[in-house]
Amino acid sequence: MDRQQPVVGIQRTSWRRCPVLLVALLLAAPVIARETIVLQKSATDQQLRGGDATLNQASPTSNNVGPTVTVESLSSANERAIIEFDLSRIPNVGIKQALLTLHVITPPSASAGTLTYGAYDVATFWQPSTVTWDARVATTDWGIPGGDIGGTATSTTTVTSASTTAQFDITPDVQSWYNGSPNYGTIIKDQT
């Protein structure tokens, strides 16, 4: 599925899918020069080894791949966004900063107040075309339904009724992936 336009929305407890993977990586060469590389699925960067989906607790065996990702916190109906990036076009330099920026298309209402979301490093392989709340690939379940992640968020951000983006500093995760740890992507979930 070719996804061209980034669209992510947040409602009171909902975050619409992100069809475009966007990470700004600030890189520094040994001479302290800085370069910014944007990884975003497009006609010129297919992100062939990247992917995204929504893990939906209310529909635990359904694959929810589409033009947006959703994050929601409801009793027995939580949703989490799972995103993976193809880092192969990053040159052989040190990672100084990696920012994951998602575009908010429907912010929470003013009465909802401020919502906090966390970005978590995914611990196990998953496949975008088959991932569900229960399973990471067609024949293998997650160790914990909703995705295998560590106990602490790499980064958190808040979203209000005035928010147009949600940005996460995932530098430690990207540095780890770039230095040889498996890159299984990031899960975004509500912190409530």
Summarize the helix and strand pattern as letters: EEEEEEEEEEHE
Question: Looking at the structure, what is the overall shape?
Answer: globular
CA radius of gyration: 16 Å
Number of helices: 1
DSSP, total strands: 11
Biggest sheet: strands, sense, closure? 5 strands, antiparallel
Tell me the layout of helices and strands.
Layout: E1 23-28, E2 34-39, E3 51-56, E4 79-84, E5 94-103, E6 115-121, E7 135-137, E8 140-141, E9 155-159, E10 165-169, H1 171-178, E11 186-190
Antiparallel strand pairs: 1-2, 1-5, 3-4, 4-11, 5-10, 6-9, 6-11, 7-8
Attribute tags:
192 residues, mainly beta, five-stranded antiparallel beta sheet, four-stranded antiparallel beta sheet, 11 strands, 32% strand, globular, disordered N terminus
Characterize the structure shown.
- With 192 residues, the protein is mainly β.
- The protein has one domain.
- 4% of the residues lie in helices and 32% in strands.
- The strands form 3 sheets. Strands 3-4-11-6-9 form a 5-stranded antiparallel sheet, with no helix packed on it. It has a 4-stranded antiparallel sheet with strand order 2-1-5-10.
